[in-house]
Amino acid sequence: MRTAAWKSRLWALLALAVWALPAGAAGRPWILVDTGTLTLTVYASNHRALAHFYNIAIGSGGATYEHGRGDGTTPLGVYHIAWIDRHSRFGTFYGLDYPTPAVAGRAYLRGNISAAQYDAIVAAFRAHRIPPQDTPLGGLLGIHGVGAGDPHIQRDINWTDGCIALRNRQLRRLARWLRLGTKVVIR
């Protein structure tokens, strides 16, 4: 039964992949987060580097394709800015559309989320809404600053719960390229 249900969900996921980019995303700058070198680079649509940010921080648990709620890891993959909170304790918070249908599909196959949770994530994606943030996959992941914290913390450790953090000054500079729908590739 699980296989038949998965096949129908797989077709829905493939259909979503055809129009996965938000409207108007073509031609926009995009972000590459390199978790190995702890850098964030802004690229123009022609792949020309516009800005580099060094000594960023990721999750204290490292980076992985198998992120789960509370594990402190940064999820690898392709995401988009889905919301902006200008009143975050870390300065402006640029929330990612995590978990995506692809992430949810893998988790469903492993038995980490239910069919109802998978369907809710896909439905949110189709409606261009923020996906459920309270499943076992976690949520509330994004790009932010250090707020009132030590601006030099990133020289020593990866300290976030899974987010990408920059110094506040770096975040203010990066903000010129961050909009709803901006693509963020985390590798």
Q: What can you see in these coordinates?
A:
With 187 residues, the chain is of the alpha/beta class. The chain has a single domain, classed as L,D-transpeptidase catalytic domain-like, CATH 2.40.440.10. The protein has four helices and ten strands, in the order αβββββββααββαβ. The protein has helices at residues 2-18, 101-110, 115-126, 168-174; strands at residues 30-34, 39-43, 49-54, 63-64, 74-75, 77-88, 91-96, 142-144, 164-165, 183-186. Strands 3-2-1-10-6-7-8-9 form an eight-stranded mixed β-sheet, with helices on one face. Helix 1 runs antiparallel to helix 2, helix 1 (2-18) runs parallel beside helix 3 and helix 2 (101-110) packs antiparallel against helix 3 (115-126). 35% of the residues are buried.
Topology of this structure?
Blueprint: H1 2-18, E1 30-34, E2 39-43, E3 49-54, E4 63-64, E5 74-75, E6 77-88, E7 91-96, H2 101-110, H3 115-126, E8 142-144, E9 164-165, H4 168-174, E10 183-186
Parallel strand pairs: 1-10, 4-5, 8-9
Antiparallel strand pairs: 1-2, 2-3, 6-7, 6-10, 7-8
Helix pairs in contact: 1-2, 1-3, 2-3
